[in-house]
Write a structure and sequence with these properties.
Two copies of one chain form a homodimer. Chain A contains six helices and three strands. With 117 residues, chain A is of the alpha+beta class. In chain A, strand 2 and strand 3 form a beta hairpin. Chain A binds a DNA duplex (30 and 30 nucleotides) through helix 5.
Amino acid sequence: MPVDLQLSPKTKRAAGAPCCEPVVYPDVDREHALRMAEVAKALGDPIRLQLVDVLRRHAGKVCVCELVPLFDISQPTLSHHLKKLRDAGIVDSERQGLWAYYYVIPDALEELSAWLT
Amino acid sequence: MPVDLQLSPKTKRAAGAPCCEPVVYPDVDREHALRMAEVAKALGDPIRLQLVDVLRRHAGKVCVCELVPLFDISQPTLSHHLKKLRDAGIVDSERQGLWAYYYVIPDALEELSAWLT
DNA sequence: GCTGCAGATCGACGGGCATCAATCTATATA
DNA sequence: TATATAGATTGATGCCCGTCGATCTGCAGC
């Protein structure tokens, strides 16, 4: 780094330096940050992350009745997690008679994935 | 998908089918899910996400005094967010006299990034 | 030693989250 | 029409989160 970190605070401030490094700025604007943080937040629960994992690796749409026995939580709680994922725009569902089929929306994770890479 | 979704519930159950599809299971075990969810949760706030963005694109270590003016939050709140990121194992810090320099831990985001891809 | 500064910690407040049992809604079977 | 079932919704509970002002902790300069 160009600026000598050994200089004392007073000396650097007297020299016109803001404090330490030249200038730093965020590349991701607030809107993108909000959107990606929303997705990350939805994935910030181990059960929801595993849910997305199951749905992603399963090509088609998966019935809720198959998801319930996979996790050690009640059916209302699972329904709550699925709603969280739906609200975040990660998954969507389809009714088929009594059953509900969930699937991951294509490219829903792409923005976050691209930023992380 | 192999199973006909048009079959009635009773018919399918009578045929021995659990309900809809063969069998579905999670590929990510609970431990990996816990770890990745912890990272995702830490990124689940727009300010923290932008913080990581700044630190990541800045090769060296960035002084806190440069981060404060970038966001419209108080200094204690910023310090709180940095602690959250540190607790999640995403960033680390280094003291240099009065200043604290933060940086992203190499490969801290790799597991989540790889899973998302 | 005293003063000033950068950054971390504390305490409080308002709001959101994960979870459950109980209930409701809509569909299928009889 | 009446009954049974899958899944969503509701209400309650206990906990965590983001935010702030105030305070504390070290380091630097005098």
